[in-house]
Each structure stands twice: as C-alpha cells, then as structure tokens.
Amino acid sequence: MASVTSLSDSVQQHLATALSATLPEAAGADPLLRRSDRADFQANGVMALAKKAKANPRELATRVVAEVATGDVIKDVEVSGPGFLNITITDAAIIRNLAARHADDTGRLGVPHAGQPGTTVVDYAQPNVAKEMHVGHLRSAVIGDSVVKLLEFTGENVVRRHHIGDWGTQFGMLIQYLDEHPHELDHKSGEVSGEEAMSNLDRLYKSARKLFDSDEEFKTRARRRVVDLQAGDPHTLATWQKFVDESKIYFYSVFEKLDMEISDPDIVGESGYNDMLAETCRLLEESGVAVRSEGALCVFFDDIKGPDGNPVPLIVQKSDGGYGYAATDLSAIRDRVFRLKATSLIYVVDARQSLHFKMVFETARRAGWLNEDVHAHQLAFGTVLGKDGKPFKTREGETVRLVDLLDEAIDRATAVVREKDVRHQLSEGEITERGAQVGIGAVKYADLSTSANRDYKFDLDQMVSLNGDTSVYLQYAYARIQSILRKAGEARPAAHPELDLHEAERALGLHADAFAAAVAEAAGEYAPHRMTAYLYQLASLFTSFYDKCPVLGADTPEQVANRLFLCDVTARTLHQGMALLGIRTPERL
C-alpha cells in the first residue's frame, strides 16, 4: 500500500500554497507547524517571513488566512498574537486519514519508506567470551536493538554487528589450562544450558587464573600460547573455538531472555579483524596519518592533551609489536566501509569510551575511510544506577549479573499479572508467559524512555507499576482495547467521517495520525526515547477518551462503530510502536 499523507503534511501543503499566493518570494517556505494547546496546529513561520520581507507580521498573517483553502482538511484558521496562525482540522479529515492508515494491511499504518535508504552498520550488544554478562551490557543491547528495528522499519538496509571480546592475552591462559585439563569442558556445544555453560567457563577461568598466578612455568606456557593463537596454530585455534562456542550458548540464553534476536553471522569479534591489523597499520603509516613514537605507531591530535599538557596519542600498534583496541576498531571501519559498503556506522557504546571513539573516527577521517558520504556516530549511553543514585552494584559491591536482574524483573511482573487477574481468566502457563513479557518489557522501556546519554535509576517497583510512564501502563492500555473489541459482539470497527467528534476523540485521532512523524524523528535521531514519549502520550489520550466517550454504550450504532474504529487504530499503533522498541503487547492481561 502507498504511504498515507499525514494531516500535518496536508496542512503544510495548504499553507505553502497560501504563502506563495500572498508572498511569491516565499514559495517553498516551511510554515513550521507545531501542536498547540489552543489549536490542532500552530504555524509560526509567518513571523520569520514577515521580517525577511520587511512586512507587518500580523498584516501578512491576515492576508495568508484569506488565501487558505478551508473545508476539506482545514476547518478554520485564525491569526493569533503577533502573527501566528492557529489551524483547526475538520473531524472528517481526521477520520478519513485514520481510515487510510487502518486499511494498510502491511501493518505499517501508512508509514512511508525512506526515499533514499542507505546501509547502516549498528555495532551493539558487545559481550566478552568466557565472561558473564552484567548490568553494564544491558543498555548497549536494548538501545541497539531498538535503533535497528526503527531503521529497518524506515527502509534502511541495516547490518547488525556484535563486536565481542574474543582475542587477547587472557586466552593464552585459558587455552593452555584447558589443553592440560581437557576433561573440564568435556561435552559438545548445545548439550548444556546457558547457566551451565557460564558456570563451566567461570570455573575454568578461576582455576586457570589461580595456576597462572602461582606457577611460573605455567605462566610461560600460557604466554607462549598467545603467540600460537595470533600465529594461527590449528590446535590452539580449535581450543579457542571451544571457548567461543561455549560462550555463545550462554550469550544466546541471555539474549533469548531479553527477547532479542542474535545470530551467528552478526557476531564478528576482535578475531574477525586479526588478518587486517598489519595492513591497517601499514596504510596509516604510509599515508602519514600515524607516526612512530618511542617504537609505537601513534596518531596525535592538537586538541587532546593529558593533565601534564602533553599530547595524548591513539596507539595503534604497541612498541612490542602488539595491537591494541584502536587497530581492531580501525580495521572494523575499513571492513564496514569497503566490504559492506556502509554509508553510516553507529556504535552503541558506553559514554566512558567517548574519547577513544573520537580519536578513532578522526583517524579514519584523516585516512579517507570516513568522509562526507560515510559517517560514524557513537550513540553514547550513560550508566545504570541503583535507587541510591550510585552505579548499580550488589550488596557485596560486585557488578550485578544481567541474568539475575532479568529474573527478578520477571518475578515481580509475574506477581503483578497474577494479582490483576482477579477473575482467574489466565492459566498458570499464561501468567508465566505474560509475566516474562511484562517484566522484560518493563526493563527495556525504562531504559529506552531515558535519553541514551543520561544515567538512569534501576527501580523495579516503578518499572512494573501500572501508573505513570511505564511499559506496563501501555501494555494494559493495549489489552484493554482488545477486551473492548472482544466484547463488541457483532459490532465491528468502521470509520464514519460524517460524525461530529468529541474533543477526546479528536485529540486521540490527531495523535494517532502523527505516528509516521514519530517514527521518522526517532529513527533519524537514533533516539528510541522519542518513540516511548509518543506511545505514552497515545496511551494517556486513549485513557482520557475511554473515560469520556462510551464505546459500546455510545448513542448510535454508527458512533459505536466509529469509536471501535478509534480503539482499533490506537491498538495497532501501540502494537507497532512497542514492537519497534522490542516490547511485546499481550492480548490479555
């Protein structure tokens, strides 16, 4: 189905025509529409145009009003204040536009695809091999997953990348230990659960570390194994692969609990760029972007200095010949730009790594790998805090395991679902399923409703609350609508543009029509919190509509059908919007 022109776009077109007729030099000018408490839309672009034309703003606005075509879309337009235009939409236009969105059987609600989609690589969800995922891994995974969904919905070609830590010195220690104690990981991948896999890895790591710290001969053998790994020794690589496979069992179990899709082709760890490192260094050195300093290959920046005032370089290759994170990240950029043909690179990474990525991106620009046609952006996120406003830790001061946090959220949500099921309409299995959907949704929504670059407090009591800006509030609004539709009997949703609308119906309809604009804004800014704000307002407007406008008890069959229609459009919009956040909308709660 073709995209649906939003009411705001229709108003823009009407105003642009009137502006051109009034002031020919204003052809193509943007009237700058915004929502207003006193009108459906307010245009304030006339003020700027009047100043440019050296005209009286109010007089110019009055002349524009005379040229505006009213009747079909615009019911009324009047001059407000020094030259603003207050615009009221007809009831019929609201219902007709929603009917067009409702008729879209693709589920897109008439939202258009991008005119010129590019290829965006989104780097997110970055766990480490042989290490447990903790609360610090939550934001990268949740924010990245939503950004991917938003971009794909707009028509962008998205390549997922999970840059896992699977290389480096600790693997020499682990590989040597497992080689000498093969029975400690004696099973095939897939035969254990995620928890068992992590338990095996954790036990192995502790044993290997203890031996490494106490036995000099083992330490020497372990360091030799690092060299073998980097050189591609087949036996060493095979043992390393066991760690990767074991870790994936665990990763996938955590991501499954988070209700996130992660697949093998998307996982490209540090090892995936190992063969590119030497060439990356050669290209940087030959181009003069990087220079040798005290034996190391470095990139210097005029605006980046340490506390002593001396330049702080990006070290691409260490003086001993080893490679650091910079070499891997720069090689990844080369791979993504030249092999994957990316036009945008998005890195969903902790804000504490901002300086590193600033230097990496600038280095890539100097090398010509990033330019006006290919840009990189760090979507930096803040820290998850406890109720006390400090970084979230256990009582023992350790980092909270992500699995424990998710399990607690599910337990809390399950209790809420069971408590609300006063008529015992849900089976125990359904309560368990809904509890997981509500609990995981609550965690995701709390994260996504906060601007990514801000810290946020992890408060499960608030997250699973039925009141306020929570996913549970939105999920219950959706479930309530489904309940209304089930109770409607033979009455079916149907649009009736000829009916006069209640103020609450108008407000709900206008906001539902703005879904496409909300998607475009959230995707364009890589800002899922724009979508959560839109959806919360939609649910709030539905609550007001439900309180003020009887649906099944409306005065006429036509009014019943029209209000069921508004309910159904709202439900579809909530469902699609929540899906873009990676959150389920249960039919019954």
Automatic annotation (TrEMBL):
**Catalytic reactions on record:** tRNA(Arg) + L-arginine + ATP = L-arginyl-tRNA(Arg) + AMP + diphosphate
Indicate the enzyme's highest-level EC class: ligase
List residues of the Arginyl tRNA synthetase N-terminal domain. Answer: 9-89
Which PROSITE patterns does this entry report, sorted A to Z? AA_TRNA_LIGASE_I
Say where the protein is mainly found: cytoplasm
Q: Per the database entry, which stretches of residues form a coiled coil?
A: none
Q: Which GO-annotated molecular functions does the record name?
A: arginine-tRNA ligase activity
Compartmental location: Cytoplasm
Q: Which residues are listed as membrane-spanning?
A: none
Give the EC number(s) under which this enzyme is classified. Answer: 6.1.1.19
Motif ('HIGH' region) on chain: 127-137
| Domain DALR anticodon binding: from-to ranges | 474-589
The protein's UniProt keywords, in alphabetical order, are: Aminoacyl-tRNA synthetase, ATP-binding, Cytoplasm, Ligase, Nucleotide-binding, Protein biosynthesis
Task: Kindly give the InterPro entries that the UniProt entry links to this protein.
Answer: aa-tRNA-synth_I_CS, Arg-tRNA-ligase, Arg-tRNA-synth_N, Arg-tRNA-synth_N_sf, ArgRS_core, DALR_anticod-bd, Rossmann-like_a/b/a_fold, tRNAsynth_Ia_anticodon-bd
Quaternary structure and interacting proteins, as annotated: Monomer.
Q: Which family does it belong to?
A: Belongs to the class-I aminoacyl-tRNA synthetase family.
Please identify the protein, giving its name as recorded: Arginine--tRNA ligase
